[in-house]
């Protein structure tokens, strides 16, 4: 059974649509990321769920209870923003215990729970400090502790790590996953960071212009995007056209690729650059194409090569291959690119623009 269900969720501002006909089911204990570029409607969707804004149309349902007219404080959920917005006049311990106080928990019990939660977020002994004495990462941990101590059914995170530096952001990602494993809380994360969504999520709901484009596991969204726009947003760089007859995809008269996926007629397909393998010498194999290295960029964890099809061939295009940093090829060198049949992905003919996406 779905714990959170959004049906036909719609919101406009001064006639401009922000969220359009959004359908989404989230299961109990699941982590789902709302991913998309700035202005696509992610934060508005979260605010509608939290009750900060009211939808123009649609239904918000939690554990079978419709929440559209339920006040924010009675929705049994917690929201953590980009900056924790701690109460500056309260100590860290009092900040964490604030929600318990509002629920009528006695002082002794809420102090015990506050200390225990601070220990869970690795801030044991910080209870008497003021928020002004905390770093950005520590303040976000306190905000998480304050949200989790009330044991909400649903935890909403709106870009909670975007203001932190890269190393601290990774630490906080690990902490959130650890806390999720300990509490089992259902979690919805808003982010514009593809890598963060991939690391954190059981599923990703990708949004463009107020609409859900694709809802899938990180692996599916990364390797099997529904269209070129989705593939490009997830870091895709290789896009080709071909004429397909079942599993044989003809690029030109001379170049025919074999795929594990069947298709018919004119198609567009992609392959992740890190799935292409390069060899200095040819060997008997399908999908082995000669190419010339025209660019070689070292990024630390990878070498990103741009390849042009060899003059001997007749495939007038370039593509990228991302290989291990220990593997190196000179500019102008001829290499042999192997495109694995199971890595070739053909886009669907149409994107779900007219029908609502009701995904569980």
Give an account of the 3D structure.
With 360 residues, the chain is α+β, with helices and mostly antiparallel strands. It has 2 domains: 2-229, Rossmann fold (3-Layer(aba) Sandwich), CATH 3.40.50; 236-346, Nucleic acid-binding proteins (OB fold (Dihydrolipoamide Acetyltransferase, E2P)). It has helices at 42-50, 92-102, 107-120, 136-148, 166-183, 194-200, 218-223, 228-233, and strands at 2-13, 16-27, 31-35, 57-62, 65-66, 77-80, 154-158, 186-191, 203-208, 211-216, 239-250, 256-270, 277-279, 288-298, 303-309, 318-323, 334-338, 345-346. The strands form 4 sheets. A 6-stranded mixed sheet has the order 6-7-8-3-9-10, sandwiched between helices. A 5-stranded antiparallel sheet has the order 13-17-14-15-16, with no helix packed on it. Strand 14 and strand 15 form a beta hairpin. The longest helix has 18 residues, at 166-183. It starts with a strand and ends in a 14-residue tail after the last strand. Residues 350-360 have low confidence and may be disordered.
């Amino acid at each position: 059974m779905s714990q959170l269900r959004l049906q036909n969720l719609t919101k406009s501002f001064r006639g401009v649509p922000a969220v359009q006909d959004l359908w989404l089911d989230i299961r109990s204990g699941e982590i789902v990321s709302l991913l998309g570029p700035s202005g696509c409607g992610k934060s508005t969707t979260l605010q509608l769920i939290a009750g900060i804004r009211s939808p123009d149309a649609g239904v918000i349902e939690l554990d079978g209870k419709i929440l559209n007219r339920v006040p924010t404080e009675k929705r049994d959920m917690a929201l953590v923003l980009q900056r924790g917005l701690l109460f500056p006049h309260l100590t860290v311990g009092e900040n964490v215990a604030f929600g318990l106080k509002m629920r009528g928990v006695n002082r002794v019990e809420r102090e015990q729970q506050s200390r225990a939660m601070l220990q869970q977020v690795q801030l044991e002994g910080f209870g008497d400090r003021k928020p002004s004495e905390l770093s950005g990462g520590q303040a976000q941990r306190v905000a998480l502790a304050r949200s989790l101590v009330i044991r909400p059914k649903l935890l909403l995170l709106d870009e909670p790590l975007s203001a932190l530096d890269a190393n601290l952001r990774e630490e906080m990602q690990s902490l959130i996953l650890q806390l999720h494993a300990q509490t089992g809380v259902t979690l919805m994360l808003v982010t514009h960071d593809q890598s963060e969504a991939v690391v954190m999520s059981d599923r990703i709901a990708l949004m463009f212009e107020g609409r859900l484009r694709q809802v899938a596991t990180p692996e599916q969204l990364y390797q099997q995007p529904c269209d070129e726009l989705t593939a490009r947003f997830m870091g895709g760089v290789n896009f080709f056209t071909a004429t397909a007859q079942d599993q044989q995809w003809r690029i030109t008269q001379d170049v025919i690729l074999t795929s594990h996926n069947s298709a018919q007629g004119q198609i567009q397909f992609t392959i992740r650059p890190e799935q292409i393998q390069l060899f200095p010498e040819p060997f008997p194999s399908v999908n082995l194409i000669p190419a010339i290295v025209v660019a070689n960029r070292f990024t630390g964890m990878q070498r990103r090569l741009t390849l042009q099809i060899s003059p001997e061939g007749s495939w007038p295009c370039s593509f990228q291959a991302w290989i291990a940093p220990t593997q190196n090829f000179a500019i102008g060198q001829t290499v042999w690119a192997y495109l694995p049949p199971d890595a070739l992905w053909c886009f669907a003919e149409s994107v779900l623009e007219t029908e609502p996406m009701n995904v569980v």
